[in-house]
Specification:
With 495 residues, this protein is of the alpha/beta class. The protein folds into 2 domains: 286 residues, Aldehyde Dehydrogenase, Chain A, domain 1 (3-Layer(aba) Sandwich), CATH 3.40.605; 186 residues, Aldehyde Dehydrogenase, Chain A, domain 2. Helices cover 40% and strands 21% of the residues. It is built from 16 helices and 22 strands. It has a 7-stranded mixed beta sheet, with helices on both faces. Strand 1 and strand 2 form a beta hairpin. The longest helix has 21 residues. It is globular and about 70 Å long. It starts with a helix and ends with a strand.
Length: 495
């Protein structure tokens, strides 16, 4: 279907979307009618395509109280039951993958290719979480290593931390909810997930699938609940006295506030970044240019590890700039429902205006506009800026849009120092043929992950994922998130 044909008719919800999702919220053991509903809008044209239930503080407190009441029951669910539920969700999600993909396109406005990837990644994450359930164990401790341990036997186990609250961002709503819910269930914790206000439906659909699998396994569906709403709903959940841990994905500013207000609860924060890609003099420049374009523009740049800062050794910087600029006109900008589209509108008009204003500020401060820097319909045209000065938000902060900044430096050591000269540290990448230079990057770059000869946006969902500095604390990935959501319990026996 052409973009013109799409525009002639309002987008339809997937037929497989469960009816309660647009009417009610999964609070307690049933779906509860919310006090009000709000429009969910398609970012491509701003049109309303559905109504979604909106929760409030009372529902948030009700959900937390119910989760607290289930804490012991969920902690005692047998390994086989938890594994069955997690694997069942992966299979159920795979069955509705096409409908979920369609819904994600409508909710997020991300290009279809990115939404398809989101669903596929979520399926494999549920499968991986199922595999990890049987690996939640402890070990013995040689207490007699000290004289006080003579005649003593000791071991430790991992126990569920308690009620978990997961707060997800708008850019990958179903995937982010998966990384909150699946490890919590694997660990034996009841969990309440709060989606972003702009993108509630995919998360509610996922929760519906999880609750169906819980019921089929003889477990309480209320082990997983969801409350939508704004800041006050989130604050009620993250500060509730019955909550033991909060897992948040979003901006650094919001994450820091949650950490302060949630104390002394455990927090796992996956926050923003301004991911860097360093290019050495010996790099394959065509591969590097391809990576910059691919890694800077996926999800229309609305990804915390998309390429934002490109730092090239000066002897290859001009050639790299030329290669990137040659590729940008071929990037298809338009309707996210169309298969060829790679850049679509951002989540809302406020985000678009902010991105364009940051580009304008950078230019006024001396940056050179190589390509883009303007709107095309409701979309920001893929943009390349050169030599953006320090102090500009387009360089210092997370732009969360299809904007790439290129800077040249004298050598690779200076490139690594420039990567580190940021308050963020989530992922970084380096293109080089030199193994020593690559290993130096792994040793020296102050980030949670270093990718060699690929985009910093590469993420394998079974690997540890998280940042340092203002990019957060704690790690996701089923195995590592389960560790975050369990506590060690030491057992000591005197013979």
């Amino acid at each position: 279907m052409t973009a013109a044909a799409h525009a002639a008719q309002p987008p339809d919800l997937p037929e497989s979307l469960p009816e309660p999702v647009t009417e009610s919220l999964p609070v307690g053991e049933e779906w509860v009618t919310a006090g009000r509903r709000e429009a969910v809008r398609f970012p491509y044209d701003g049109g309303e395509f559905a109504l979604a239930p909106v929760g409030d503080e009372a529902l948030a407190r009700r959900a937390a109280g119910h989760a607290a009441g289930l804490r012991r029951q969920v902690s005692k669910l047998p390994t086989r039951v938890r594994r069955r539920v997690l694997a069942g969700v992966g299979a159920a999600l795979a069955e509705v993958a096409g409908g979920m993909e369609d819904l994600l396109v409508l909710e997020t406005g991300k290009p279809r290719a990115d939404c398809r990837t989101e669903v596929l990644r979520a399926v494999t994450t549920w499968e991986a979480a199922a595999d990890e359930v049987s690996r939640v164990h402890g070990e013995t401790v040689p207490l007699d290593g000290l004289p006080s341990g003579d005649g003593m036997t000791g071991f430790w186990t991992r126990r569920p931390i308690g009620v978990v609250v997961g707060v997800a961002g708008f850019n990958y709503p179903m995937m982010l909810a998966t990384h909150k819910i699946a490890p919590a269930l694997a660990a034996g914790c009841p969990v309440i997930v709060k989606p972003a206000p702009a993108t509630p439906l995919a998360t509610l659909w996922l929760v519906a699938l999880v609750r169906e699998q819980l019921a089929a396994a003889g477990a309480p569906p209320g082990a997983v609940q969801s409350v939508t709403g704004g800041t006050e709903v989130g604050r009620t959940l993250t500060t509730h006295p019955e909550v033991a841990a909060v897992s948040f994905t979003g901006s650094a500013e919001t994450g820091h506030r949650i950490a302060r207000e949630a104390a002394p609860r455990k927090v796992v924060l996956e926050l923003g970044s301004n991911a860097a890609l360093a290019v050495a003099a010996d790099a394959d420049l065509d591969a590097a240019a391809d990576a910059v374009v691919r890694g800077g523009l996926y999800a229309s740049g609305q990804a915390c590890i998309s390429v934002q800062r490109v730092i090239a050794v000066e002897e290859v910087a001009e050639a790299l700039e030329r290669r990137i600029a040659e590729r940008l006109p071929d990037v298809v900008v338009g309707d996210p429902r169309e298969e060829p589209t790679r850049v679509a509108p951002l989540i809302d008009e406020a985000a678009t205006e902010r991105v364009l204003s940051w580009v304008g500020e950078a230019r006024a401060a001396g940056a050179r506009l190589v390509y883009g820097g303007e709107r095309r319909g409701r979309s920001v045209v893929p943009t390349l800026l050169a030599e953006v000065p320090d102090g500009q938000p387009a360089w210092d902060e997370e732009i969360f849009g299809p904007v790439i900044c290129l800077r040249s430096v004298p050598d690779l050591a200076a490139a690594y120092a420039t990567v580190n000269a940021s308050r963020y540290g989530l992922h970084a990448a380096v293109f080089t043929r030199d193994l020593g230079a690559a290993l130096t990057a792994v040793e020296e770059l102050e980030t949670g992950g270093v990718v060699v000869n690929d985009v910093p946006g590469y993420r394998c969902d079974i690997a540890p994922y998280g940042g340092v500095k203002d990019s957060g604390i704690g790690r996701e990935g089923p195995r590592f998130a389960i560790e975050e959501l369990t506590v060690t319990r030491m057992a000591v026996f005197r013979r």
